[in-house]
Amino acid sequence: MPINKEEQEIQTAKRAFVNARGVGNHQEEARWANLIGDMYKNRGEYVKALKWLRIDYEVSNKYLPEKQLLPTCQSIGEVYLRLHDFKHALVYQKKHLDLAKDANDLVEQQRAGTQLGRTYHEMFLKSDNDHSSIRNAKKYFKSAMKLAQTLKKNPHTNKSSFLKEYIDAHNNIGMIEMDLDNLEEAKKILTRGLEICDEEEVNADNDCRSRLHHNLGNVYMELKVWDKAQEHIKKDIRICNRIGHCQGEAKGYINLGELHYRAQKYEEANLCYQKALDLAKSMEDEDALVKEIDHNIGTVKEAMKVMDEMKKEEQNLKKLTRSIVTARGTHHERKCLLQQNASLDSLIEKSSIILAWSKHHEFAKRKKRIASELCDKEKLGDSFLLLGESYQKLRKFKKAIKWFMKSWETYKSINNLEGQALAKINIGDVLDCDGDWMGALNAFEEGYRIAVNANLPSVQLSALENMHYSHMIRFDNEEEARRMRHEIEKLKSENWEIERKNLAADCCSETDTEGDDHLSDCRSNASCSQEINESGSAGSKYLAGAEGLNDDLPLISLLRSHKNSPRTKSTQEEMHNTSTWPTKASPQCFSKTASDQQTVLSRKRIRIVLSDDEDEMHDEVDCSRERLNRCPPEDVATSNGLWASNPAISACAFQGVSTVDSKCTTSSWNPNNNEESTSSYKSRSLKIVTPKGKVFRSSSNNEVAFACDLAASGSKCDVPENLAHKNNAAHLRLHNSGNEDNQCIVFRIDNDLIQVDAASYLAFDKLSIESMTVELACLYYLQLPTEKRSKGLLPIVQHMKCHGRVLDSMEAFETLKGDQGNILIEVSINGWVQKRLMKLYIDCCEELSEAPNMKLLKKLYISEVEDEVIGSECELQDISVTPLLNALHTHKTVAVIDLSHNFLGNGTMEKLQQFLTSGQKYGDLTLDLHCNRFGPTALFQICECPVLFARLEVLNISGNRLTDACGSYLSTILESCRALYILNIERCSITTRTIQKVADALNESSVLAQLSIGYNNPISGNAIINLLAKLATLKSFAALNLSGLKLTKPVVDSLCQLAKTSCLSRLMLGSTGMGTDGALQLTASLFEGSQESVKLDLSYCGIMPAYTRILSTDTLICGILELNLAGNPIMQEGTNALVSLLTNPRCCLKVLVLDKCQLGLTGILQMIQALGENDYLEELHLADNADLEKTYMLQYESAKGSSDILQPHLIEPAQQDVCVMNTECNQLEVADSEDGPIREEAAPSDFDDSCTSSCQKNSLLECQFIQELSTAISMAKQLQFMELSNNGFTTQVAEALYAAWSSRLENGSAWRHIEDQTIHFSMETNKCCRVKPCCRRD
Known about the structure:
Keywords: Chromatin regulator, Chromosome, Coiled coil, DNA damage, DNA repair, Leucine-rich repeat, Nucleus, Repeat, TPR repeat. One of its GO terms (molecular function) is histone binding. It holds the Pfam family TPR_8. Residues 564-589 are annotated as: Disordered. The chain is of the alpha/beta class. It is 50% helix and 9% strand. The chain has 50 helices and 28 strands. The longest helix is centred in the first third of the chain and has 41 residues, at 287-327. The protein is globular.
């Protein structure tokens, strides 16, 4: 294959390096090693670069003068920085600076200072409280700028003018100011950098200009000057494109995507991110950048969903606004206003999520008017706070101050200390943004004073963090900052101790529960307010007179009564329905807990925008993202009752793009839980409580901790000790703190109780009844005493009952969502099953003090044969897999080991080799290790295990980065493992060299039957031809996978020869680009002689419709068992040929894949109609066949009062409320619908065509297509699976089609997976999406 210019240069440099080493010229040897390292660094291959730079360092350090180490240390430090190994980066960069000072070399001192500044800057961005790093960054950047200025005025002998370094110094200082929110100062410095470029006539395409434009784009984006931001970002992209700076261009597109995202232009944002993704994928060692871009694309998709929801809610608000006209002066007026307020709360939440601050401002103003009409000062204070936030985000600071002050005054008038403290902190934040740092500090201190008086720990913490930031960053007052840090840690420690004690005391009490249940009854009684305010067990609740009134009272009566009911608000008031989205104006968020503690978030700014300072830096990617995962974006600081819904659910989806414009310095945010903090003991993991008060906790990483005291467990729901003896209780209500997130489900098995968190357990989109019963059995076994677990007997759950009703489906469980309080479910056991390996695994976990992995436990439980160890997709790592391997060592016998899709490395293979060496000496063995983190030496462990030479039959090591270093090991395995008949090395980053070694290792005595080498590049045609020639000599060879390899004409000829001589049963050639002629030639060769049924994959091969015509010939019609033609333009012409094939009684096709074949809707209908005459086809894939851009899209909505009647309506793809689909036979109009995810089991239901009666009103033709499609589906009796995804069908249409699918069944249940545009119909016994494509076994 031709070698590109870069590769030629590297090869030339390597030859020069070898020559220099051969003659002992150490100076040249070091120089060439440095040059090669620099080449790899510029290509983004940092690991290889580090290898060569280390050679340079070793040679220079050993043989050359000390001064020769200067460029070496600089290069190594820079590579370590790019790899985010800050510790080693600082070592080499400081050594670089010391050497430069010793040599009195100002040039190298300037470079070393710049590098150190960059490293400390990245360390600052990556941390939440390492402010010494930002001080060091500023120190080194300023020092570097002074040196650059000196060198520019007095150029060093034989050196450059140092203009570039001087300009870059402006860029670095500007970047620091931008990260500290000093945007005007940053703009000034960066603009000066561009002015210097113009004054010194720097080339228009110079990379210095690129970096300045990049950061100026970021600054203007933060300043909300969109046109200027776009101008600079596009200039950055153009320059990077012209100079071939691929990484910089990708980052430019990321910034442009961010700009469009903030302007709610999601289509444009997606296009930009896609361009960035293509560029990032073209580079080596840029996996982090690719991951971030993928995350951003997902975030934009989520934002589009929120925008759609917001538009629907706006329609709802319009209806509510119209209804208030007729309700004026009636008893419905207040109720209508409250409904409008709730709708506005939802809209405000959604607009803040997608950063639509203009909309946010509009809704906040409307909320203010509603609050005024309701005569509710608390809601009025909330609306003022929201208006202040809107103006702050729009950078109208004077107006923001005005409304925050009004908010403070309003809260003060009703004695709401908490609201006053929040308003003061918000005022301080605005003053900080506006440059009034002393005023900001005073406001923070005032907020802290109020919070102390009100005894609000979380607000105190927020104020302290802001004060710490001011002292540390704004005033550089290290002594005061240290004192603030001490106060913060002290407050956190005290809060944690209080919460731990409250947790122990916060046990389930029937009396307390009853009090909570009747709390709403107290609201109408003014005297009840005082009682609750004086109660400290569950937090005080203020019951204002206005809230205690009947919602149906006319407002005029409220105005009269309000004069006699002054609001006095408790300082310990509990927060209801508060937002959990932090903002610059609100450094804290509140989540309701039983002890009335609130969550406090970090205030330091986070950005998705990637810095492109100095060279091709991508350092900010990982650190920015890491902090993005610590804090949810854009919150609103509120008083009581601001939100009617909890946005924490949607918070996770928007951590990636939104920015948190806050400046706190502590990290109190837990990346695993958006509602947890250091001051909250709420746990969202599964909890298991024994009658003795011990708790078992299933953590977020699916691991189950062993028994610990309840007081320290973090559990909020508790079960009284005597509960186990109340065997006659039909339903039990546990202690409920008042937050739905804390609702618990208690399963009773005999006299044992298992308690879980309802919110995390009832995840209907990820759970089935079978999965629930399996997990329940595992949890029950874990909580048994050791002596009872000794036999390894686990329960078989027969059924579950609640309120006397059997819970036999997820629909039945869904009805429990409406229950108040906690839920008791009776579990019946139908026998016991012994799971020896599972018992051994748990014992080994105890010995190693490791928590059992819940996913692995479930896999071991459902395994029918204990000799088959299935541990795929269990998030196992080298440490957490150790108990399993120890258990296998005791278990001895094993026939299948499947540890695919985990995070295992070479350490696991070494332990596995030790187990296999000392264990079973005979018997077939399957080793499936695909999609892990194994390297080439993992295969060395197989070569060192003589037992495997006789036992190993199947080896799947695909999806691991083996590289060509594994070639000799693969060769040894093929030669030594005499029983090996399946080898899969797909996607292993191997090339021609390894394939040649594989071919050389094969001989006539080999029993190899299946070989997969797909998606490895580059592999030359000659290597494939040699391999095919060797395979032709094997007697039992039957299956070959070459997917993803480009097959030339000579290779196709060799493949045809193999097809003639070998009896192939499976041939996978997807994405090989063989074309129609190659496919015709190969298919003819396959069936030239006597041939068994074959499974043939020709997807994405560029095959035209002409190919389908030969499929109807007598030879082929009964010879193909599975056929994959996905991604080929089959179109209508090919559809007719395939219909002819399916209707032929001799056709024996079992699986037919026609995704993305441009069949059109008519083709889809014809294919399904053909199945009425087919008795063999079991799987049919027809996804992505409707051209939604040119044609129409169907949406249906059930008619009012009937779930069976479909009313049609045309809908344009570009519009929000209308969508159109060309059925290619009729134009159908389909009404709007609300699409929602559906993935559940459904019993078969009779399909009827009651649609006809409805359609007669509008036109019989309007419903014809869906009618015909449904009828065709109901006639496909043999079909077991069908996919119709991404064809424009809405949920309602999919449900109608599913009814037809279910009607075919006489026995058994149908299964559906309907979510967004995903539409899968399958059978209960073989559910869709259960197994990944790479894990399917024939």
